[in-house]
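sry for the spam today, last one i promise. C-alpha coordinates for design, 305 residues
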Protein backbone atom coordinates (compact mmCIF):
# COMPACT_ATOMS: atom_id res chain seq x y z
CA UNK A 1 0.00 0.00 0.00
CA UNK A 2 2.73 2.44 1.02
CA UNK A 3 4.68 1.57 -2.13
CA UNK A 4 1.63 2.27 -4.28
CA UNK A 5 1.19 5.64 -2.57
CA UNK A 6 4.83 6.52 -3.24
CA UNK A 7 4.45 5.55 -6.89
CA UNK A 8 1.24 7.57 -7.17
CA UNK A 9 2.97 10.57 -5.60
CA UNK A 10 5.89 10.25 -7.98
CA UNK A 11 3.53 10.07 -10.94
CA UNK A 12 1.67 13.14 -9.68
CA UNK A 13 4.96 15.05 -9.45
CA UNK A 14 5.89 14.02 -12.98
CA UNK A 15 2.50 15.08 -14.29
CA UNK A 16 2.77 18.40 -12.43
CA UNK A 17 6.24 19.03 -13.85
CA UNK A 18 5.00 18.24 -17.34
CA UNK A 19 2.07 20.61 -16.88
CA UNK A 20 4.45 23.37 -15.81
CA UNK A 21 6.89 22.78 -18.67
CA UNK A 22 7.16 25.65 -21.09
CA UNK A 23 5.34 25.10 -24.39
CA UNK A 24 7.51 24.60 -27.44
CA UNK A 25 7.64 27.57 -29.86
CA UNK A 26 5.91 26.84 -33.16
CA UNK A 27 8.76 28.35 -35.17
CA UNK A 28 12.54 28.57 -34.81
CA UNK A 29 13.93 32.11 -34.89
CA UNK A 30 17.68 32.01 -35.69
CA UNK A 31 20.16 34.06 -33.63
CA UNK A 32 20.86 36.05 -36.80
CA UNK A 33 19.22 36.03 -40.22
CA UNK A 34 20.56 36.52 -43.73
CA UNK A 35 19.45 35.85 -47.28
CA UNK A 36 20.65 32.27 -46.73
CA UNK A 37 19.53 31.77 -43.11
CA UNK A 38 16.01 32.80 -42.11
CA UNK A 39 12.75 31.10 -41.22
CA UNK A 40 12.30 27.79 -42.99
CA UNK A 41 9.57 27.55 -45.62
CA UNK A 42 7.42 25.62 -43.16
CA UNK A 43 7.99 28.15 -40.38
CA UNK A 44 7.17 31.05 -42.72
CA UNK A 45 3.89 29.33 -43.63
CA UNK A 46 3.15 28.84 -39.91
CA UNK A 47 3.98 32.50 -39.22
CA UNK A 48 1.61 33.64 -41.97
CA UNK A 49 -1.18 31.29 -40.84
CA UNK A 50 -0.91 32.39 -37.20
CA UNK A 51 -0.97 36.04 -38.30
CA UNK A 52 -4.29 35.40 -40.05
CA UNK A 53 -5.70 33.81 -36.88
CA UNK A 54 -4.47 36.74 -34.79
CA UNK A 55 -6.20 39.22 -37.12
CA UNK A 56 -9.45 37.26 -36.73
CA UNK A 57 -9.27 37.05 -32.91
CA UNK A 58 -12.26 38.49 -31.08
CA UNK A 59 -11.94 41.70 -29.09
CA UNK A 60 -9.24 43.35 -31.22
CA UNK A 61 -11.26 46.51 -31.82
CA UNK A 62 -10.19 48.86 -34.58
CA UNK A 63 -11.24 48.63 -38.20
CA UNK A 64 -10.77 44.91 -38.86
CA UNK A 65 -8.16 45.46 -41.57
CA UNK A 66 -5.56 42.98 -42.81
CA UNK A 67 -2.06 43.28 -41.36
CA UNK A 68 1.65 43.10 -42.12
CA UNK A 69 3.96 41.39 -39.64
CA UNK A 70 7.74 41.15 -39.36
CA UNK A 71 9.99 39.03 -37.14
CA UNK A 72 13.54 40.08 -36.32
CA UNK A 73 16.28 38.00 -34.70
CA UNK A 74 17.84 39.10 -31.42
CA UNK A 75 20.58 40.96 -33.35
CA UNK A 76 17.95 42.98 -35.23
CA UNK A 77 18.23 41.24 -38.61
CA UNK A 78 14.90 40.60 -40.31
CA UNK A 79 13.97 36.90 -40.43
CA UNK A 80 10.49 36.96 -41.95
CA UNK A 81 7.83 39.26 -43.40
CA UNK A 82 4.22 38.23 -44.04
CA UNK A 83 0.75 39.66 -44.62
CA UNK A 84 -2.73 38.38 -43.79
CA UNK A 85 -4.46 39.36 -47.03
CA UNK A 86 -4.42 37.41 -50.28
CA UNK A 87 -2.17 39.95 -51.98
CA UNK A 88 0.39 42.51 -50.83
CA UNK A 89 -2.02 45.37 -51.59
CA UNK A 90 -4.80 43.91 -49.40
CA UNK A 91 -3.34 45.80 -46.42
CA UNK A 92 -1.72 49.22 -46.09
CA UNK A 93 1.50 48.96 -48.10
CA UNK A 94 3.23 51.49 -45.83
CA UNK A 95 2.66 49.13 -42.92
CA UNK A 96 5.20 46.64 -44.28
CA UNK A 97 8.16 48.77 -43.20
CA UNK A 98 6.32 50.04 -40.11
CA UNK A 99 5.94 46.44 -38.91
CA UNK A 100 9.71 45.91 -39.28
CA UNK A 101 10.35 49.15 -37.39
CA UNK A 102 8.13 47.97 -34.54
CA UNK A 103 9.84 44.58 -34.35
CA UNK A 104 13.25 46.27 -34.25
CA UNK A 105 12.15 48.67 -31.50
CA UNK A 106 10.65 46.07 -29.15
CA UNK A 107 13.63 43.76 -29.64
CA UNK A 108 16.16 46.57 -29.27
CA UNK A 109 14.67 48.00 -26.08
CA UNK A 110 13.85 44.78 -24.20
CA UNK A 111 16.17 42.57 -22.16
CA UNK A 112 16.25 38.92 -21.27
CA UNK A 113 18.75 37.24 -18.95
CA UNK A 114 22.01 39.22 -19.08
CA UNK A 115 25.57 38.90 -17.75
CA UNK A 116 28.46 41.30 -17.24
CA UNK A 117 28.90 44.34 -15.02
CA UNK A 118 25.18 44.18 -14.26
CA UNK A 119 22.91 41.16 -14.22
CA UNK A 120 19.74 43.25 -14.08
CA UNK A 121 17.60 42.54 -17.12
CA UNK A 122 14.51 40.46 -17.80
CA UNK A 123 12.38 43.48 -18.64
CA UNK A 124 10.22 43.81 -21.75
CA UNK A 125 9.04 47.03 -23.36
CA UNK A 126 6.39 46.99 -26.03
CA UNK A 127 6.32 49.84 -28.53
CA UNK A 128 3.01 50.86 -26.92
CA UNK A 129 4.88 51.50 -23.65
CA UNK A 130 7.07 54.17 -25.29
CA UNK A 131 4.48 56.70 -26.45
CA UNK A 132 4.23 58.97 -23.41
CA UNK A 133 7.94 59.21 -22.60
CA UNK A 134 8.74 60.22 -26.19
CA UNK A 135 6.37 63.20 -26.28
CA UNK A 136 7.75 66.78 -25.89
CA UNK A 137 8.93 67.16 -22.31
CA UNK A 138 9.13 63.39 -21.81
CA UNK A 139 12.23 61.61 -20.57
CA UNK A 140 12.74 59.93 -23.97
CA UNK A 141 11.83 62.86 -26.21
CA UNK A 142 13.80 62.52 -29.44
CA UNK A 143 14.09 58.75 -29.24
CA UNK A 144 12.18 58.39 -32.51
CA UNK A 145 15.04 60.10 -34.35
CA UNK A 146 17.80 58.00 -32.82
CA UNK A 147 17.76 54.98 -35.16
CA UNK A 148 16.70 55.92 -38.71
CA UNK A 149 15.19 53.24 -40.93
CA UNK A 150 17.61 51.83 -43.50
CA UNK A 151 15.34 52.74 -46.41
CA UNK A 152 17.45 51.17 -49.16
CA UNK A 153 17.37 47.81 -47.42
CA UNK A 154 13.69 48.14 -46.58
CA UNK A 155 12.63 48.54 -50.19
CA UNK A 156 15.32 46.47 -51.87
CA UNK A 157 16.61 49.54 -53.67
CA UNK A 158 19.23 49.16 -56.38
CA UNK A 159 21.97 51.76 -56.59
CA UNK A 160 24.45 52.12 -59.45
CA UNK A 161 27.78 51.67 -57.66
CA UNK A 162 29.68 53.68 -60.25
CA UNK A 163 27.41 56.73 -60.42
CA UNK A 164 25.34 56.46 -57.23
CA UNK A 165 22.17 56.74 -59.31
CA UNK A 166 18.97 55.22 -57.98
CA UNK A 167 17.82 52.32 -60.17
CA UNK A 168 14.57 51.50 -58.39
CA UNK A 169 13.44 48.59 -56.19
CA UNK A 170 14.79 45.13 -56.86
CA UNK A 171 11.50 43.21 -56.98
CA UNK A 172 8.30 44.34 -55.28
CA UNK A 173 6.61 41.01 -56.08
CA UNK A 174 8.63 39.41 -53.26
CA UNK A 175 7.21 41.74 -50.58
CA UNK A 176 5.84 39.53 -47.81
CA UNK A 177 7.38 36.40 -49.31
CA UNK A 178 10.23 34.33 -47.78
CA UNK A 179 12.57 36.24 -50.12
CA UNK A 180 11.31 39.71 -49.12
CA UNK A 181 14.26 42.13 -49.59
CA UNK A 182 14.14 43.06 -45.89
CA UNK A 183 15.12 39.50 -44.90
CA UNK A 184 18.71 39.46 -43.68
CA UNK A 185 18.82 43.27 -43.40
CA UNK A 186 18.96 45.38 -40.25
CA UNK A 187 16.10 47.78 -41.02
CA UNK A 188 16.21 49.54 -37.64
CA UNK A 189 13.92 52.44 -36.86
CA UNK A 190 12.16 53.43 -33.64
CA UNK A 191 8.39 53.21 -33.37
CA UNK A 192 6.50 54.53 -30.34
CA UNK A 193 2.94 53.30 -30.74
CA UNK A 194 1.29 49.90 -30.36
CA UNK A 195 2.23 46.82 -32.38
CA UNK A 196 5.76 45.78 -31.39
CA UNK A 197 6.63 43.06 -28.84
CA UNK A 198 9.80 41.23 -27.83
CA UNK A 199 9.96 37.43 -28.13
CA UNK A 200 11.13 35.24 -25.23
CA UNK A 201 11.76 31.57 -24.60
CA UNK A 202 11.18 29.73 -21.32
CA UNK A 203 14.74 30.34 -20.10
CA UNK A 204 14.28 34.09 -20.04
CA UNK A 205 16.30 34.59 -23.22
CA UNK A 206 15.18 37.21 -25.70
CA UNK A 207 14.79 35.58 -29.12
CA UNK A 208 13.95 38.68 -31.16
CA UNK A 209 10.90 40.81 -31.80
CA UNK A 210 7.65 40.84 -33.74
CA UNK A 211 5.97 43.89 -35.23
CA UNK A 212 2.44 44.21 -36.61
CA UNK A 213 0.93 47.10 -38.54
CA UNK A 214 -2.17 47.78 -40.62
CA UNK A 215 -4.98 49.04 -38.37
CA UNK A 216 -5.29 51.45 -35.44
CA UNK A 217 -2.20 51.38 -33.23
CA UNK A 218 -4.27 49.88 -30.38
CA UNK A 219 -5.46 47.05 -32.62
CA UNK A 220 -1.92 46.54 -33.94
CA UNK A 221 -0.91 45.79 -30.33
CA UNK A 222 -3.80 43.38 -29.85
CA UNK A 223 -2.96 41.44 -33.02
CA UNK A 224 0.77 41.38 -32.20
CA UNK A 225 -0.07 40.00 -28.75
CA UNK A 226 -2.23 37.21 -30.18
CA UNK A 227 0.42 36.41 -32.80
CA UNK A 228 3.22 36.14 -30.23
CA UNK A 229 0.99 33.95 -28.07
CA UNK A 230 -0.04 31.76 -30.99
CA UNK A 231 3.64 31.14 -31.80
CA UNK A 232 4.46 30.25 -28.14
CA UNK A 233 7.09 32.98 -28.07
CA UNK A 234 5.43 34.81 -25.16
CA UNK A 235 7.14 32.80 -22.40
CA UNK A 236 7.65 35.82 -20.16
CA UNK A 237 6.06 34.18 -17.11
CA UNK A 238 8.17 31.03 -17.47
CA UNK A 239 11.30 33.10 -18.09
CA UNK A 240 10.72 35.56 -15.25
CA UNK A 241 10.31 38.61 -17.50
CA UNK A 242 8.67 41.73 -16.07
CA UNK A 243 7.45 44.90 -17.76
CA UNK A 244 5.75 48.28 -17.18
CA UNK A 245 2.21 46.93 -16.82
CA UNK A 246 3.35 44.62 -14.02
CA UNK A 247 4.72 47.59 -12.08
CA UNK A 248 1.62 49.79 -12.04
CA UNK A 249 1.50 51.51 -8.67
CA UNK A 250 -1.54 52.55 -6.69
CA UNK A 251 -3.45 49.47 -7.76
CA UNK A 252 -3.03 45.89 -8.92
CA UNK A 253 -0.33 45.57 -11.56
CA UNK A 254 -1.13 43.47 -14.63
CA UNK A 255 1.50 40.84 -13.81
CA UNK A 256 0.10 38.32 -16.30
CA UNK A 257 0.53 40.83 -19.15
CA UNK A 258 3.78 42.61 -18.21
CA UNK A 259 4.43 44.46 -21.51
CA UNK A 260 0.79 45.17 -22.24
CA UNK A 261 -0.52 48.45 -23.64
CA UNK A 262 -1.63 50.82 -20.84
CA UNK A 263 -4.45 53.33 -21.27
CA UNK A 264 -3.85 55.82 -18.46
CA UNK A 265 -3.40 59.14 -20.25
CA UNK A 266 -5.36 61.93 -18.58
CA UNK A 267 -6.66 64.80 -20.67
CA UNK A 268 -4.68 68.03 -20.54
CA UNK A 269 -7.06 70.92 -19.64
CA UNK A 270 -4.82 73.27 -21.63
CA UNK A 271 -5.06 71.05 -24.71
CA UNK A 272 -2.33 69.14 -26.47
CA UNK A 273 -0.80 65.90 -25.24
CA UNK A 274 -2.28 64.51 -22.05
CA UNK A 275 -0.32 63.13 -19.13
CA UNK A 276 0.25 59.42 -18.48
CA UNK A 277 -0.35 58.63 -14.82
CA UNK A 278 2.33 55.93 -14.73
CA UNK A 279 4.56 57.22 -17.53
CA UNK A 280 3.99 54.35 -19.98
CA UNK A 281 0.54 55.30 -21.29
CA UNK A 282 -0.80 55.02 -24.83
CA UNK A 283 -3.64 57.06 -26.39
CA UNK A 284 -7.03 55.50 -26.98
CA UNK A 285 -8.11 54.61 -30.52
CA UNK A 286 -11.19 54.16 -32.69
CA UNK A 287 -13.35 51.19 -31.62
CA UNK A 288 -11.39 50.47 -28.48
CA UNK A 289 -11.02 46.97 -27.02
CA UNK A 290 -12.61 46.46 -23.60
CA UNK A 291 -10.28 47.79 -20.88
CA UNK A 292 -9.85 46.86 -17.20
CA UNK A 293 -10.41 50.15 -15.38
CA UNK A 294 -8.14 49.12 -12.49
CA UNK A 295 -5.06 48.35 -14.60
CA UNK A 296 -5.85 50.34 -17.75
CA UNK A 297 -5.08 47.28 -19.88
CA UNK A 298 -7.24 45.27 -22.34
CA UNK A 299 -9.25 42.39 -20.88
CA UNK A 300 -9.45 40.04 -23.87
CA UNK A 301 -5.75 39.21 -24.30
CA UNK A 302 -4.43 35.84 -23.08
CA UNK A 303 -1.85 35.95 -20.27
CA UNK A 304 1.78 35.40 -21.15
CA UNK A 305 2.94 31.82 -20.74
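last one done:
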Amino acid sequence: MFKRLLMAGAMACLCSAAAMAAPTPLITVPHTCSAEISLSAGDHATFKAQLALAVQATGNGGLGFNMWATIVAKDGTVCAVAYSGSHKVDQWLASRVISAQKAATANGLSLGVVTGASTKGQFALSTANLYSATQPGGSLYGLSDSNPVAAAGAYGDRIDTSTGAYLGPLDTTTYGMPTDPMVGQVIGGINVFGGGLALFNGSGNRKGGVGVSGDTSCTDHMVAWHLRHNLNLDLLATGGISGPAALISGGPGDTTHPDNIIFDILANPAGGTGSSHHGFGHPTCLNMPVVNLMTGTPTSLPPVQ
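The helical segments are 2-20, 41-55, 95-108, 151-155, 217-230, 236-239. ok im logging off now
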